[in-house]
């Protein structure tokens, strides 16, 4: 019984830290959200924070995991275009934060999304001509490149068209690298 109570307490604390971070990131004016900001908002101690996260970047990536899972679903043929549109609208409404994240933490975001895609490909049993990790990285970067360009105002596009394009191109890419018979010589 004590273990169950401890698990619930850990879950509550993690949720409080995530909620505090999300609130600060979406409503705050500070460009960088520090650990002290999060622990003050969540009303927990610094040592409690470190029991759950190694640093603010770790917390930020955990906060991104849920929204990026919508993109991972779309990229692996398991998605809902309406959910993807809502996610893209959220990125657009918070585009300065999205720019900071998608450009400033490019490698971490790419690894996070690629990891989610890799899990889905593994669960589906899909094999590819590339090692699954590389295939996942290629698919993730395909989706992220167009989002970065869009939130970076390199070109305008309506949300519906962008969502459909991401879904189609990532699925086409996934199918094109799926394991198949090697081409015959001369092709």
UniProtKB/TrEMBL annotation:
Q: Which UniProt keywords apply?
A: DNA-binding
Q: What sequence ranges are listed for the domain HTH tetR-type?
A: 11-71
> What are the TM regions of this chain, as residue ranges?
none
The feature table lists the DNA-binding region at 34-53
Among the GO molecular function terms of this UniProt record, one is: DNA binding
Protein name (record): TetR/AcrR family transcriptional regulator
Organism for this UniProt entry:
Hyphococcus flavus
